[in-house]
Write a structure and sequence with these properties.
Layout lengths: L1 H19 L13 H22 L22 E5 L5 H13 L15 E5 L10 H4 L1 E5 L7 E5 H7 L2 H9 L8 H5 L2 E3 L13 E2 L13
Parallel strand pairs: 1-2, 1-6, 2-5
Antiparallel strand pairs: 3-4
């Protein structure tokens, strides 16, 4: 009995010491403090930044995003399109292309970077097929249910020819928050005269039949 008690007393300290010192070196594992981890991360980031600076500017991550000053109206160009004898869809697509500013390297979908477009001779725009009689436009007359009216393209051409091009271009513009500012850049006139000579608009009628890449 005495020998069993002595053996148990000799084994117990050894087991306790093995739990306290699990490594062969005898040093307990010390958790890394947050402050020490942050300091080490700062050293690594500083070294990486110094290495990047030594290699020169990072052109791959040097992105450009326009500011409000870049999108101001004082920087916008004016263009004019003569719609006489031109196809309706081609005139509208070219106008929407320049209104959105897709011809510029600073084009950004979420900002108004485009130009002003003046379309003259709206009453002489051409349509293909049987659209003159088979294409209809809906409009509200009195604001009440059932108070709408369907109007053929030839009738709208006689009553308000500017509306034909306005509806066509508006359908090609985005429908978000910049829809109204972009649509205000479109100026459509029935005849050949327009009151925007002071802005010196550039005539881009010859670019109607060209692809967008060639219309720059």
């Amino acid at each position: 009995m005495a020998q069993a008690v002595a053996l148990q007393a000799a084994v117990a300290p050894a087991s306790r010491s093995s739990k306290a010192r699990p490594f062969s070196s005898g040093k307990a594992l010390v958790p890394l403090r947050p402050a020490r981890a942050e300091a080490r991360q700062a050293i690594v980031c500083a070294a990486a930044t110094a290495e990047i600076k030594s290699l020169g500017p990072d052109r791959w991550n040097d992105t450009y995003y326009p500011t409000g000053a870049d999108a101001a109206n004082v920087h916008k160009q004016w263009y004019v399109i003569d719609a006489e004898g031109q196809t309706l869809g081609r005139v509208a697509s070219l106008a929407a292309y320049y209104i959105r500013g897709k011809n510029l390297p600073t084009y950004t979908p979420s900002m108004d970077m485009g130009a002003y477009v003046v379309i003259v001779n709206a009453e002489k725009v051409a349509v293909t097929g049987r659209k003159e009689t088979d294409k209809f436009y809906f409009r509200h007359t009195n604001g009440r249910p059932g108070g709408g009216k369907m109007e053929a393209l030839r009738d709208l051409r006689q009553r308000l020819p500017e509306r034909i091009l306005e509806k066509c271009v508006k359908g090609m513009l985005p429908k978000g928050r910049i829809a109204s500012p972009l649509f205000n850049h479109l100026k459509v006139y029935k005849g050949a005269a327009h009151p925007h000579e002071a802005q010196r608009p550039i005539d881009i009628t010859s670019r109607i039949s060209k692809k967008p890449a060639e219309a720059l």
